[in-house]
Known about the structure:
Blueprint: H1 18-39, H2 41-51, H3 53-78, E1 95-101, H4 108-116, E2 124-130, H5 137-148, E3 151-156, H6 162-170, E4 177-181, E5 185-187, H7 191-200, E6 206-215, H8 222-244, E7 255-259, H9 260-265, H10 275-285, E8 289-300, H11 306-326, H12 335-366, H13 380-401, H14 410-436
Parallel strand pairs: 1-2, 1-4, 2-3, 6-8
Antiparallel strand pairs: 4-7, 5-8, 6-7
Amino acid sequence: MKAYNKSxxxxxxxxxxxxxxxxxxxxxxxxxxxxxxxxxxxxxVSLGHVVTLLGAILIITGIAYIPGYLISFMVGSLxxxxxxxxxxxxxxxxxxxxxxxxxxxxxxxxxxxxxxKQDYEGDxxxxxxxxxxxxxxxxxADQVAKELGLFLQVVTEKKAGKNYALNTALSYVxxxxxxxLDADTLLHxxxxxxxxxxxxxxxxxxxxxxxxxxVRNSRQNIWTKIQEWDYFLAIASVKRLQGMYQQTLxxxxxxxxxxxxxxxEIGGWDDVIGEDIVLTWKFLKKGFRVFFEPLxxxxxxxxxxxKSFSIQRxxxxxxxxxxxxxxxxxxxxxxxGKYLTGVNLILPYVDAxxxxxxxxxxxxxxxxxxxxxxxxxxxxxxxxxLSYMILYRxxxxxxxxxxxxxxxxxxxxxxxxxxxxxxxxxxxIYGYLQELxxxxxxxx
Length: 444
């Protein structure tokens, strides 16, 4: 992993104030929505003969109008995105890295080795939380830390749960800045420097910066190949959009930077399955801002089986509902926060439309019945592909700046475009139901 090459990072040469970006983005989305409604009138009429006019409007709104509007807003906004330059490129503030671990003996050594390679000029202190490990995680960590000369402190939390582990470690943090890092996540050589640069270049009311998390094990099998594009394009695009409006909705526990005193003031992490979501929304409710730094890259291991993938993504969906219950969108003090968290209120409707109408519509289309799935349903594809092209171009420039290369993964990309949402919506519905029915939490 090599250092950053600033000259290779492309960005727009003009700057649009954030409030105008918000307005222009919605105007762009509104134009696309009106165009979609206009050319989809025959579809509404034909489907209305089958499920009534109101039913047709509700179905088409869920599978076409709302997704098209949201994607158009993202495209319109990202076209104006311009990441502010760092005011400080080589900060020296001491940082504490918290690593909550449960049976990570296979990964913790590599994670610590990558921490030792950071080009950060400040002190890096590491706190490893033994969250009831039954393997040799702690022994491996101690041995590697001694070999590399790392400052490593091990604390123990017997109660299972990442929130308990992090809250226990919080009382040991003495630095103003702290990072949470998953035990199976590898940092780019300049990751800590860039994420601290962003914090030090930001106003005082910025209390957290989310790093850019990408896939580490993308070559393992077809599931990881598909997820590579999800992280590289979809998740990164949403993060950039939210970061542009200074209201990143998840400073993910896998790799994010925080102001220690702010976490202490709000009482740490809640006992929920989406502890990082709820924590971030509590930041926003208090009037703080949360940024995103695309140059601060980490590589994490993603689920390699459909079962583990489903458990993870249903957990994310459940965490979103927990966030909505903890902090209502209208409780957010900033307009952008109200909008971005408010979007989550309609996502269950979109997922339900895809699950209960789009999927049966695809089956019917195989038999020549085009009530739901047909030529007009492809209206969302052009704007979707356009958004991915825009993001791919930007992401590629980020990789060039970091002297990284985008792996060839055409099969994963094609499957990502064709089947990803078909898989994600039912999995998300399962997550919503888990929270609604208060089912047992499943982390792995």
